[in-house]
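User: Can you model how zinc ion sits in this protein?
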Amino acid sequence: MRRQEQPRAGRPPTQADLAGRAAGLRAEVQRVVAGIPVLDIHTHLYDPALGALLLWGIDELLVYHYLVAETFRHGCGRVGSEFWRLSKTAQADLVWRTLFQENSPLSEACRGVLTTLHRLGLDAHQRDLPALRRWFAGWKVEAYVDRCLELAGVRGVVMTNSPFDELEGPAWLRGWRRDSRFQAALRIDPLLLNWPVAARQLAEWGYRVRADLGATTRGEVRRFLADWSRRLQARYLMVSLPPDFQYPARAASARLIEQVVLPHCQESGLPFALMLGVRRAVNPALQLAGDGVGSSDLAALANLCAAHAGNKFLVTVLARENQHELCVLARKFPNLHIFGCWWFTNVPVLVEEITRLRVELLGLSFTAQHSDARVLDQVIYKWDHARAVVAQVLADEYVRLAATGWTPAPRDIERDAQQVFGGAFERFCRG
Ligand code: RAT
Ligand code: ZN
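Assistant: Here's the modeled complex, given as structure tokens:
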């Protein structure tokens, strides 16, 4: 019998061929990634119709809690609790002086401010904070939203929306004409992490709940979730959990997730997003800047994914130590979609490591980054910096592929980049 014909390899490429191909590929990946419109799947931004809730401008950029934490490192006595008594302008002055004038602004959060100003066409090197303030004062918010999203190449952002928030909750009840670029996510930390207080709140709002989590209460909490998912047109429900979260467990959080949240999510087809590993208020004096990190027991996540195959889980973990195990879990559970390099992992050295790990273990079935922006202008730097690192990782991986003779076409690169910048998330939500 004749041996079957094999596709023939051509002349083996020379070193010069490979180097030329690699340079071409790298340039192509840079070009494609720079132009991909991003869906930013987790932010703390708000629809501009929500007025003062949407933060923007130089002072907000400077008092970002990532920078406040860094400022507190310089002379506790001088900063300390006095900081919180200062006006926002005075806080911004102090951050500017401490981190940008008295020290070189090398941290990721500091560089972020400078990238943002630079991309806006401003010369921060003049160190003229009053002039920067005057420039920002000249903008109307609507036009500025357009400008920031355009510069960042962001086609849509997902907000973090809490019915429990004193300002936001009533606004949703009143309603407004939505800006379709600002999609909603129903955030339920108060419900899951402080059930006794949440129960009183729900009762005040007319839901027939009692602290005991009996059948009527469970039904009523589910009604609450259904009401708010509908009102918000939520893309998903979300919670951030501490490192010691366990599932299954007798704790109210685990029972509510199992008996209320997941049945609601399954019925409505919405994913449940878990952000794992935050230790709240490690240093309460720092307020929002005082949270820390701990390694999570991801057996809890494995148990959730295994016991609720009909549910979809969107997950990011805060601890570097958890990143590898999370990727391995995603290989086991198709109902698990991993996303983003969150908070303390959103530094180039870790974004590179984590993205490489994900590509090498999962291919492209994940979402590379979310901005977590709290201030509108931050989307500019968060995406600028993320694109640079993701492009570098993709380019390296394609170059290695090309050495086997498998050279991706520009449309392959485009399809791949779309996936990790929002496409894979959308497919996961639809699926
Ligand atoms: O990254 C942050 O800004 C944190 O303060 C948290 O908001 C975190 O992203 C969260 O959503 O819990
Ligand atoms: Zn967040």
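A couple of observations from the model: The chain has 19 helices and nine strands. The pocket of zinc ion (ligand 2) is lined by residues 42, 44, 160, 372 (CB under 6 Å).
User: Helpful, thanks.
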